[in-house]
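Researcher: I need the complex structure. Ligand is adenosine-5'-triphosphate. Inputs:
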Amino acid sequence: MDEKPQAETATPDYHALTADAVLEKLEASADGLPETEVARRRAEFGPNLLPSAEAEGPWKIFWRQIHNPIGWLLIGAGALALLLGKPTDALVVFGAVGINAVIGFIQEFRAGKAIDALAAMIPTAATVLRGGQAQAVSAVDLVPGDVVTLQSGDKIPADLRLLRVKNLLVEEAALTGESLPVAKRAEAVEADAPLGDRLGMAYSGTLVVQGTATGVVVAIGGATELGRINALLNQTRQLETPLTRQLAKVSSGITVAVLAVVAVLIGFGIWVKDAPVGEALMVAVSLAVAAIPEGLPAVITICLAIGVRRMADRNAVVRHLPAVETLGSTTVICSDKTGTLTRNEMTVQVAWLDGHEYRFSGIGYAPEGEISHDGRIAEPTPALFGLLRTALLCNDAVLRFEEQSWTITGDPTEAALVAAAAKGGLDAEAMRGRHPRLDVVPFESETKFMATLHRLDEGTVILLKGAPETVLERCALDAEERERILEVMDTYARQGLRVIALARKEAQGAEQIAEEAVAEGFVFAGLLGMIDPPRGEAMDAIRLCREAGITVKMITGDHPTTAEAIGRQLGLLHGEQGALRGRDLDDLDEGGFRRAALETHVFARVAPEHKLRLVEALQSEGQVVAMTGDGVNDAPALKRADIGVAMGITGTAVSKEAAKVVLMDDNFASITAAVREGRRVYDNLIKSLAFILPTNLGLACILSVAMFFFPTVTVDGVNELLMAMSPSQTLWINLIASVSLSVPLAFEVLEPDAMRRPPRAPDAPVFSRFIVTRLVIVALLMTACACALFLWEYFRIVGPEPVTAARHAYALAEAQTLCVTGITFTQIFYLLNCRSLRDSLLSLGIFSNPSIFIGIGTLLLMQGCFVYLPPLQKIFGSAPLDGWAWLTAMLAGAVVLPVISLDKWLRREARAK
Ligand code: ATP
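Model: Output:
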């Protein structure tokens, strides 16, 4: 063949060729490519990555920072200042709009990039045949010509021409918009068939919802159909959360309120105080600038972005930003057992057949250990050999010795069976080679069994393995025998063992497993019991959850007795409490179901559809539910839950796609860590609000008080309004002081009691009475201090009437500078109070958040520049202060510290009562 595999141009007619013709064209074989060829093709075609699609261009993000009510109000204010002949003030206002937009842009752009990077952390694995061996590789490493096997739950990693297909249903909504799954076949179709009718193809990014298949890669990366439409499926770019939405509403409210107050002030200034129109309008501009929290959007984005990053550090990757907040108000966590609460390191410990018990030594997947009977090491009897052979053949797992340890490919339950068979002297490769599989009914959580068809020495048989009840239902047994087996099973389950039953059935001449063939007529072969120890860290995490008012429920497909035993070890069940079976749930009416959902802590033998009903029942009882899941059928429950949590290691691509959070280590403790982080983020957001907003209210009050109550001064015969601050000075406070002080709050440590208080109600308003009261107290204190400082300094300097223009200008600059410095000190001292809204500063540890001191230091330095640097004096109309003035400003600012501390103490006392 002289033709090269043409993945880059993805010849569109692969679907019209037979499977063999496609393999030939790609110079590939059904056994997969040899490793050397893979390396060559990787060099030629590059990685299997989609070119990333920018969800929103940088310019659009930048424009959004300006194009909002607050942005336009500021631009209006700047234009007004310009019209009034105050170009410096106008410049400062425009500068502020620009700087704010740049800060907002950088934050949002960076947060977006960081979140994209997180999405890329979620690995997509693929199973390929290389040199005839099945291997799990990262989807990025696929090359054209690779032979990939698919099973239910997989995301198709590249464009494939299907070679063999079994009951394959693929959901192609990502590509065709059609949400109903399509049944695939391996046959060729017409060359001009539209995408949705090309049944012999499976396209990258679509999802296998049922069945299995093998296919050869015909296109990767940008050459795939998905790459062509350039749709990077990614829901994480959305930066809106319930809180930001609430704040957007607040900011529109502020804008309207500001406009109303401004109108009143202008009227009052012109008609009551007889001030020149220009002067009155300038006060209005100052007020507009003062009342708007320009720095707030930046601070919120920073808080959320830090939260997302910290969660990722703790192995919880957030795919959907609002989840950061919702996590903080989670009231119930419904968790799978296997792998999440337990280690998912299965080891077979016991086999039972024909009334005999055999014990297996050894731990983990190492196929090293012995089998003993009645305390003595024993060679496997033919019956035990038969049982282990069934366990090995009706099994997809592979054990491999890699880098000094045994690793597995496939399901841990099955891997444990392979290890157990090895202890009985059965070599997996040899046995599977000798008795190849003719057909399979794969294991599903609903059916709870797996069946395979083989030609054994004694004839064709169907081998069956699954949950004991499922297997016994299919076996011809008398009542007494059945009773005995169930008793044995119960004994093992009570010890927390996961029990698997095995059976076989003659199937003379069968080529396939017919549906009715697996329904009955099996001969029972025996039981195997395996341990799966609980995770130590899960026990601690469950305790933490209990303290935090979060209920943990275990939802498992395992047997109720096993589930109860593990539930007790984990501390989920106490006293008489027991597990409820999925079947028991089916018998309950609506009300009973809800009650059961609320009161039961362990659900066993549960099918995925129960999960969905449980989520709905809990939600209808007002709970905020986090639900874990890994299988295809868990997707509806994951979508429905407030926080769907998928498993990064064992989870199917379908479940990850449906989830809001993906656990990179499948570990329950990571959910608790994420909840903790969620509470911290929310607390810090509220702290930032509680810190920033009093300044805006305070500034607006100061300017209003000045307008309503400050005397007018006659300067050289002209009536002058006394303004405590100019517009540019209010901007200085709003942007420089507020932002440099509030950003460090985003880094604030977790409050000592954050995981000891009940979850926050999701509909609780951001502005609780408590926050509003705090806001008003601080704003009033700030107003009193600033006004007092200004009046005292101005009249001290200006002296008795008549006032000359020069003396007025000098006194005004001094007094305004002192006023601004006083406000800055109020902010600094109030910041210390905001580190915890309820607890005293000391309880957090004074130095537990060093960034606070960096923020304060930076601000003092900048305030020094504001006061002393001539260029800044020119822009902001500031003047140098002497030591006494600094001291006075500091003392006035410090007033807030004891007042708020007293308020906190009184509230704590009231709460303690
Ligand atoms: P969880 O929902 O906590 O992850 P689980 O993994 O125990 O629960 P399933 O995987 O649905 O739940 O398994 C249910 C039962 O099916 C198990 O108790 C076991 O008896 C049986 N089983 C599990 N895996 C297999 C398998 N690969 N083949 C046959 N039977 C299995």
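Model: Summary of the prediction. The pocket of adenosine-5'-triphosphate is lined by residues 336-338, 411, 413-414, 443, 445, 448-450, 465-467, 498, 500, 556-559 (CB under 6 Å).
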